[in-house]
Amino acid sequence: MSRELEIVLNSIWPVLKAGLAVTIPLSLISFAIALVIAVITALVKLSNFKILKLIFSTYVWIFRGTPLLVQLFLVFYGLPKAGVTLDPWTAAIITFSLNTGAYASESIRASILSIPKGQWEAAESLGMTYWQVLRRVIAPQTVRISLPPVTNDFIDLVKGTSLAASITIAEMFMIGQQIVAFTYEPLAIYALVAVIYLMFVSILTFIQGRLEKVASKYI
Amino acid sequence: MNKSFSNHHALKDINIQFNKGETTVILGPSGSGKSTLLRCINLLEIPQTGTLEIDSFKIDFTQKLSQKDKLLIRQNTAMVFQSFNLFPHMTVLENVIEGPITVLKKDKSSMIHIGEQLLEKVGLLHKKDSYPSQLSGGQQQRVAIARALAMEPKFLLFDEPTSALDPELEGEVLKVLKALAEEQKSMIIVTHNLNFARVAADRILFLENGEILFDGRTDEFFNNTENERIISFIQSMQFI
Ligand SMILES: Nc1ncnc2c1ncn2[C@@H]1O[C@H](COP(=O)(O)OP(=O)(O)OP(=O)(O)O)[C@@H](O)[C@H]1O
Ligand SMILES: [Mg+2]
């Protein structure tokens, strides 16, 4: 067996283990929080609360307008200067959820806006309150419409977690770097890392397809 | 009531009383304010001044409208739209019982029974488990009518209910409306279909530029020989 192949085979498990133990939980936790942030942000931006709107718009503006890597550094290395010291996981989850929340809020807001005005009017004319309209009429349709763009945001997040390596989290990319450091096989090892990311994202895409089918049964 | 949009005075001091059990058809040229009038009754638009009274319940538009009053008026005035606006993610039956269950907190199993009866009435019981996307326009509009009826409103409002339909499909919807008129349901219908107005309406309102030019019995309207504006409107409509 060639040397490269042997190194790659021996590296599969360490890299995959980092994926299962770090990349996936980090992505899932951050995404769950991001979704909550995104829904609240989208609703506030569609509301008439001027001051709240300004606050949430500023948040989206900042997090979409600055690089994720810079955000991670600011939170992890910068905040301690302001007296806020966070452990790497906390810093990563906060940064990733705020970043993905900003993007996903726009995906969700656009989906809500794409629902015809007649849906609101029909629901309101039945005497539904704002919350009833949202819950019974708008939310179910928003889920379907926002599935593709929100999955996109999720995929970006999964790949973005590779940046957590820079704040000392031993996720897949960092493990790959460590293996390269003593095997000197950057081509093979980084290709392996890429393939495992691709595998994770493919699973997500597959789940998206399934969910879309379920959510679109009425089309 | 008075309603203005930015710089357009859409309803000018409109003052009308609609009677229970009566079918009123609102006619008038495009932009005359017919839709606006219906939407003000359902509070999808809020007039700037005036009052709205249903039975002994009265609201004054110069005061701040409470959410409770708004919902109460809406529950009593069900609207059927030109574009149907059925909820696409609900089946036909779910569409019909959604209002009573969510808004009126009616019991679901008894509403299913009532919903099925209403669907039977509009000839669509066999479609109760279909989704709106699987129905023709005429069928969708009949479901929308059943949805409005399910609220047991005091008034049914229709804004050009057949304008989005082909002539063949228009007939099936008009038949349902005619049956409702014969049942003495209280209805206010905006339409461009003069033949329908002639046979189904008890009363005609003719609107132009946000004002009521005619308010009277249907035969008076069609036999009118004095008002030039109405005569030319009827003639222009008959050439379409
Ligand atoms: N949301 C709105 N904003 C601004 N102007 C409006 C709005 N809705 C209606 N208008 C204006 O008010 C006037 C009356 O409109 P309305 O829709 O009530 O007419 P209509 O009689 O229903 O006409 P049509 O037969 O074409 O449906 C029109 O001049 C219209 O441009
Ligand atoms: Mg109109």
Q: What features would you describe in this structure?
A:
Chain A: Keywords: Amino-acid transport, Cell membrane, Membrane, Transmembrane, Transmembrane helix, Transport. Chain A: One of its GO terms (molecular function) is transmembrane transporter activity. Chain A: It is a multi-pass membrane protein. The complex is a heterodimer of chains A (219) and B (240). Chain A is an all-alpha fold and 219 residues long. Chain A has a single domain (3-218), classed as MetI-like fold, CATH 1.10.3720. Helices cover 81% and strands 0% of the residues of chain A. The longest helix of chain A has 43 residues, at 3-45. The radius of gyration of chain A is 21 Å and the shape is flat. Chain B is α/β, with parallel strands linked by helices and 240 residues long. Chain B has a single domain, classed as P-loop containing nucleotide triphosphate hydrolases (Rossmann fold), CATH 3.40.50.300. Helix content of chain B is 40%, strand content 19%. Chain B has 9 helices and 10 strands. The longest helix of chain B is centred in the last third of the chain and has 16 residues, at 167-182. The model of chain B has no long low-confidence stretch (mean pLDDT 92). Chain A binds chain B through residues 116, 118-119, 121-129, 132, 136-137, 140-141, 144, 217-219, and chain B through 42, 44, 67, 71-72, 74-75, 77-79, 81, 83, 85-90, 98-99, 102-104, 131-133, 144, 147, 151. Bound molecules: adenosine-5'-triphosphate and magnesium ion. Magnesium ion (MG) binds next to helix 1 of chain B. The site of magnesium ion (MG) has 4 residues of chain B, from helix 1.
